[in-house]
Amino acid sequence: MKNLFEYAEACLHSANIDEKLALTHQAWQTLGYGELSLNSDRPVLPIDRVSFPDKPILLAPRNMPKRKLNTPEGVSAFFHAIAHVEFMAIYLAWDLVYRFRGMPVQFYQDWLKIADEEVQHFELIRIRLQTMQLDYGDLPAHNGLWDHARDTADDLLARLAMVPRCMEARGLDVTPAIITRFRQLGDDASVALLNRILTDEVGHVERGSYWFKFVCEQQGFDAEAKYRQLIGQYYRGGKPKGPFNREMRIIAGFSNAELDWLEGH
After folding, report:
1. Where are the domains of the chain?
2. In the chain, is it the N or the C terminus that has fewer CB atoms within a 10 Å radius of its CB?
3. What are the Cα distances from residue 5, in Å, to 24, 97, 152?
4. Within 10 A of 192 (CB to CB), how many other CB atoms are there?
């Protein structure tokens, strides 16, 4: 297998977790060797053909049990939730590669790199879970993340607005406070792991911002106005609630005007 879209199809349409992780690393390495074809003649299968593992059991976000970080059960539940986010992020990165054809080569290189980094995150969290006698799938997870992919399967701008520039950007807002909490608890392993993920996520959101602006320019849209319109259209509840990490979001390609709008100024 030496074609990017064959790799994407295999990763999206197999429910086998370990195979998905291995294929993602293999695709990224093959790209690095200069041996990956980006010929996109293969047809794009509908998004409802994407396959997921039988576990974890998926619940509506409101039905997820609430746990605090000051108990071992709370810490393990937190990392299981993060594992699920990172696992779904693998799918989301691959689906961007797979579903949206005709973009510059750099677009596919960027999202394949991101898919590989999401796999690294997932693998690191899985190791952390195993130290707690847990594996991914042992606890329930929420089912909201993939809904955004389904909603935006036919619209690249909407996908970039909703996934990297909305859902993933929330990590930039909330993770620093969680890192501080683990630091207060003296949990250096968790601090190191979350710092690593946060650093990479800034880059992922920045790539989302870059390509969002690129496509807006291609299609003749004002990027800030288009972002407001798409969030209003696709975000349930109108727009995300703050507080927002302005410093990190600016690094990740948000404008002050976008942040003022999000904050309600």
Report:
1. 1-38+54-147, 152-265
2. C
3. 12, 8, 19
4. 13
